[in-house]
Every structure is written in structure tokens, then in C-alpha cells.
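Hey L., structure's done. Input below.
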Amino acid sequence: MATWRRVDPVGFPRVITGAMLVIGVTFALVTTPGVALSGEWLGAAVFFGFLTLWLGFAWRMHRTGVYVNHEALRLVHILRTRTLPWAEVAEIYSATAMLGARPTSRNAIWVRLRDGSRIESPVQCRADWLGISMHGNAGRVLSPAGFDETLIELQDAHRRAIGR
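Output:
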């Protein structure tokens, strides 16, 4: 199996999600013995349920991004991971990000498949000064320069993989 390489750059949001993971694991290590030995089974179940959700969500947020290897492109969203063999990818380009069926104020990296369908990646370009928007904050938000570098790197990886 080929190793996956993350294409989008490490940024402040990834540091925050890493901190969420460290806090969650530390909290689990410190409090688990007391909760487990308390005899409160309902409380322990709620505690471990919350802890599982916290760590699972933090891990998925931390992994959200675009990955490549010589065989495929992988789009990791918070709730879904999609792996696309390079042979199925027709084009990688930038277009307006969508929130449901509505366009947002940002651009996203899109993948057009050979069958004509389009898939939005979790990587978006920051359109406002603070990177805060009411539209489409469902993945990585990069600076315009970081977005352009990521798009070019993905397009180059696609060209190399299909031999162009």
C-alpha cells in the first residue's frame, strides 16, 4: 500500500485540532480511573460516550484535508473520506464553494471525474480578512497563496500520475 502525503499546508486550525486531541487524551488518562472505580455506571457510560465523541470529532477535524499518492487522490472531510483513483480524475480546478445547493463567498478546490460528476474538496480559499465567514466553513480554509500552491501541487500530482 502506498503512503499518503498531505497536500494542504499545516496551519493554525490544524494546531488547534491537535491541541483538542492532546487535551482529550490527557483528560481521559487523568479522569478514567476515578470514573471507572466510582461504581456510577450510568455516569461512566455518559462520560465515556462524550469522550469518544470528543476524540473522534477532534481526530476527524485534524485529518480533514487533501492527500495524494501515486495511485489516487483522497479527500478527507469531517464525516466522509473519499478515495479517487487518478484514472477516474479528469480535472482539478478552483470554483465557487457550495453550502448545500447555494454558492458561498469562497472558492474551493474541485475535482471533475471522467463521468462528468464534480466533487468539492474540503479545502477552501479565505475570502475575507479574518478567515471567518457565515458560508461553508466545513474544512480547511487557506490563505490565497496557500490555496494557489495547494491547487498547483494537486494539478502537478495529477499530471504525473496519468503520465502527461
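The beta strands are 5-6, 65-68, 72-76, 81-85, 89-99, 102-113, 118-125, 140-142. The CA atoms of residues 3 and 69 lie 6 Å apart.

-- N.
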